[in-house]
Amino acid sequence: MELRHLKYFLAVAEELNFTKASEKLFISQPPLSRQIIELEQELQAKLFIRNNKKVELTEAGKYLQKEAKELFQKLERISLKTKKIAENVSGEFRIAYISSIYSAVISELIQYLKTQFPYVNFKLFEVSTTKQINALEQGKIEMGIIRSPIKSPTIKSYLWFQDGFSLVYNKNNIQIKSEEEILNLKNETFVFFNKDYAPHYHEVLLELCSFYGFTPKIIHEANNINSIVQLVKNGLGISIVPSNIAKNNPDSAIGFIELKKVNLFTDVSVIISKEDNSEITKTAVDFLLNKSSEH
């Protein structure tokens, strides 16, 4: 039995019409009929009931249709997996991350992967959480690093680390020594993430300010954590950022105060496709999870 026999059989089984099936397969009807007869002879089973009015599947034909469909679906998966394995040897591996979690560990990850898979072209993209999820679902990236919960039936997530929050301010403009003095900043202008860009994060920031007893006056909005820190450095306001940013920002003009009393954290997760079992993805995930203690 050859695959073409099954391909022809499935076309007839779907159309239940030899003329339509032959048109679909771009062959004439007599060769198609011969292929079906050959298949029936090889299997020693009648697959179709044929008369002048219609074509019907026999019980044996119905069984073969179901099994042949599953076989072709499996062949397609094998083909895609084979292509994926080949790409991991000499292809492209795309990693997305959100700006608020970038750290030296991500740079270390790329360096490590390059030593393990020297023929792979690794690419880093700064992408919002929502766009990362869409990109992963569509196969446009292989791995993402996001903040906040994820709801997708096709994505697997691993908790990388939990991140707290810190007040960030310009030391020349703001005089503050501890968390107890935060309410004194209620009249200061704030720089926050744009609500449409990061709605969950925006709500968390409002919740934090509410905990300390005030509603922030948001004057400037940005879509990038580095832009927010730069605006603070330029004296355009204060902000609240993930503590991870404070640990990775050595600028002496900027001060950070960790907000410990509120006891509020966000999960930073590594996300991959549930269908991705490649060695390169496993290596990347394992590297980050083993480095989680450094945050």
From TrEMBL:
What superkingdom heads the lineage?
Answer: Bacteria
Q: Which UniProt keywords apply?
A: DNA-binding, Transcription, Transcription regulation
Task: Check the record and name the SUPFAM superfamilies matching this protein.
Answer: Periplasmic binding protein-like II (SSF53850), Winged helix' DNA-binding domain (SSF46785)
Kindly give the InterPro entries that the UniProt entry links to this protein. LysR_HTH_N (IPR000847), LysR_subst-bd (IPR005119), WH-like_DNA-bd_sf (IPR036388), WH_DNA-bd_sf (IPR036390)
UniProt xrefs under Pfam families = HTH_1, LysR_substrate
Q: Which residues form the HTH lysR-type domain?
A: 1-58
Q: Which Gene Ontology CC terms are recorded? A: protein-DNA complex
GO MF terms listed in the record are:
DNA binding; DNA-binding transcription factor activity
Family, as annotated? Belongs to the LysR transcriptional regulatory family.
- This protein is called LysR family transcriptional regulator
Native source species: Flavobacterium johnsoniae (Cytophaga johnsonae)
